[in-house]
Design brief:
It comes from Paracoccus alkenifer. The protein is an alpha/beta fold. The chain folds into 5 domains: about 120 residues, Ubiquitin-like (UB roll) (Roll), CATH 3.10.20.740; about 150 residues, Alpha-Beta Plaits; about 240 residues, Rossmann fold; about 180 residues, Dimethylsulfoxide Reductase, domain 2, CATH 3.40.228; about 130 residues, Barwin-like endoglucanases. It is built from 29 helices and 36 strands. The chain is globular and about 90 Å long. The N terminus is likely disordered.
Amino acid sequence: MKDFIIPDLRDLGTPAVRSDVTVTLSVDGIPVSVPAGTSVMRAAALAGVTVPKLCATDSLEAFGSCRLCVVAIEGMRGTPASCTTPVAEGMVVHTQTDEIAQIRRGVMELYLSDHPQDLLGSPITGNSEMQDMIGAVGLREMRYVPGKNHVYPQNGGAPNPEYRAPDDSNPYFTFDPSLCIVCSRCVRACEEVQGTFALTIEGRGFDSRVSAGMASDDFLSSDCVSCGACVQVCPTGSLVENSVIQIGTPDRIVKTTCAYCGVGCSFDAHMRGETVVKMVPSKDGKANHGHSCVKGRFAWGYATHAERILHPMVREHYTDPWREVSWDEALDFAAERLRRAQAEHGRDSVGVITSSRCTNEETYLVQKLARAVFGNNNTDTCARVCHSPTGYGLKTTFGTSAGTHDFDSVEDTDLALVIGANPTDAHPVFGSRLRKRLRQGAGLIVIDPRRIDLLDTVHRSDALHLPLMPGTNVAVLTAIAQVIVAEGLQDDDFIRERCDWDEFLAYREFLLDPRHSPESVQAQSRVPADLIRQAARAYAAAPRASIYYGLGVTEHSQGSTTVMAIANLAMLTGNIGKPGTGVNPLRGQNNVQGSCDMGSFPHEYPGYRHVSDPETRAIYERVWGVELSEEPGLRINNMFDEATAGRFKGLYCQGEDVLQSDPNTSHVQQALASLDILIVHDIFLNETANYAHVFLPGSTFLEKNGTFTNAERRINMVRRAMAPRNGYEDWEITQMLANRLGGGWDYAHSSDIMDEIALTTPSFAGVSFDLLDREGSVQWPCNAAAPLGTPVMHIDGFVRGKGRFINTEYVATDERSGPRFPLLLTTGRTLTQYNVGAQTRRTDNTVWHPEDVLEIHPHDAENRGIRQGDLVRLASRAGETTLRAEVTERVAPGVVFTTFHHPGTQANVVTTDSSDWATNCPEFKVTAVQVSPSNGPSEWQESYARHAELSRRILPAAE
């Protein structure tokens, strides 16, 4: 497939403005019509006239400091800056006069007087914007003699007190102050785009310079989150990626999609041959609009990490060392073992686990392998393990199993209710957009046991934080709904028109029961009743309110009930079907949504159609040419139970590390050890591979073609930037295995698989690679009724017809604290690491998060004699582990928190088998634990480390 050609994405100098009024003006004799409020600079660019600039860029608000962009405007005195001057009807602008040319050359001379001319536009930085502007203003010689400057370490043989040495503390980029012209782009990008406010301009006049915090701070020790926004906007190369310094400038660009979280950022992979030079967020990316986070921007080095496995391996038993073999031998070995398992234990004794990190096309083939080749529906995915309550709850209430609005909708919201999510850490680019909207005046309600960074948004102090106890989501949300109904704050017109009125009346009666009052719920949740009432009134009063939630909602025993409670709130107040509103699940991994869409569940085909439906089954039987089972298959936890019982014997696991990511690690270990054949298809020897018999080396997102579907239902292209180092894209490996088992598949390209998806799945009926190449991306449903996709759903009515109100009775989890385990553990993610850490732990991101730690409140720490940094024992009814303590008030007394990125800690060794009542989604977020001082690893950790070392032995390749 040819590389995607980057479209014309000129920098128009200042951002676009929203206005219903159009203004017509003349720029150098060229008429142009633009929205009122547009800058003269942008109007000129749209007319095809380029005005020189250095401090201006269309990702930032106009600043007007560099003075290169001066123009002449008839009837206006002087030469105003075009970036800060708005257009007016009939305005006549001249961008080129003798006076203007002289001013621009003089300004550029002043810049060059404090700039190392021999480095201008240096190829080492790959940034020629400064040099371009020198040419644009026609400067050819300098009048100024060398004098006081910031450029050289020495001045006349003596140390230069004005010189600032380069800051190379950050592992990914370097700041060279000698190249800086103090245009403030980096500072403004940190404020306006990222919202971190880590950078500032220190000093005045000649002494002014960019500073990363306090005088003692550098870029690594400061509040900088390494999103790369500052690097991206720097016009001089003062801020530059280390990879560019080491490798050189790229020679081609391939547009692709980030393989980390569910935001689905578009990136331009800047390549030199088969080597990635840098990843630059795409300006035209519809999910990220040119922004990125530290993971997508910089943490791609795992693709060429030395620990990648590039050759197939097999072994007879999981305690044997691995031996490298050919692809033919590995696939024959795997196929023979799978056939034997089914012959000896029955058709249902084998299954597959698909991945939320692989493409839609790869995931589609893995579930097809189970159904069309194995002859059963034993297919599951981590997407169900984390977000199946979203599918169940939203399908029950609205009729669809996905979020309702696009990310752009946040720009119109007046209030955001964030529950069980930490956007700035887990979905950073969306978190930055939400923060920007909050700074513009939108309200914020956070419902979370932990104080998340979003609450510390700069310039805002009026956010409401409801620090509930883990497991009480349903009680708090129902109490909020009770206040809305009791005080008559609901939108009756919307409810009558769009919802089942009789069901609403029944729901209203349910809510008004005194047990749902804020005062009653306060005892269960520990959230003050007054806070609940404030939140209810704020949400109901907002003209446009949106709800964003994450795994802190779904990974509970009442996860599905909580999702329905969220849907109830949106319907009660009419906050659905229009911009700035909606119910928006924030998916944790890059293709959680797509994994669900592609039929990875044991009871549903692609498009969320039940396997027992004869019409749906007939579609696939006709296309696949086989008879299909109507019986739902096994979920992952059922597979493990059956394995320990001796009835489930074979598993093909693509791209998932279930041993680290699933609950009750000891039970998972036992199940995997019971299998006759475990095939792990991945890029590294992960923890699950400790028990595998076959290892099939996978390909990274940089080595494949396909699509990901993000949290807003956006289908984005993934394009191959380099040849697969293992020899094959992942879909090809699955096809080779299927054909060893008689599948008879003949896909020639991943686009063929998407064509089959479109043929068989109504919501994808209009999707093709050609459409995505042309449009950039689309949001399903994409079909004849919506040929370019559906950014906002439920505009005129719900998919199911009338919206359903569901009574949300609070049922306390069985996992409760007590004398033996008095604390409640909840888990989550951190900014610099991703999921089980297999990718990010093999990058320099470990500088920021070298190990998982346990956050504990000072009161609980003091009671246990625990100090900052102490090793502590974390024990539950399921197991125990040891990690370091982080004493902090971010968690409330009685609550502890940790991440699960490092296998040495293996947080899931303490989580239990409790799960959601409707979907079996594990209850990761509520585990009763005890914390006590420790002097070393737990017995389990030591045993696990010994086994991991033993299981990863690889015999030398035969000569």
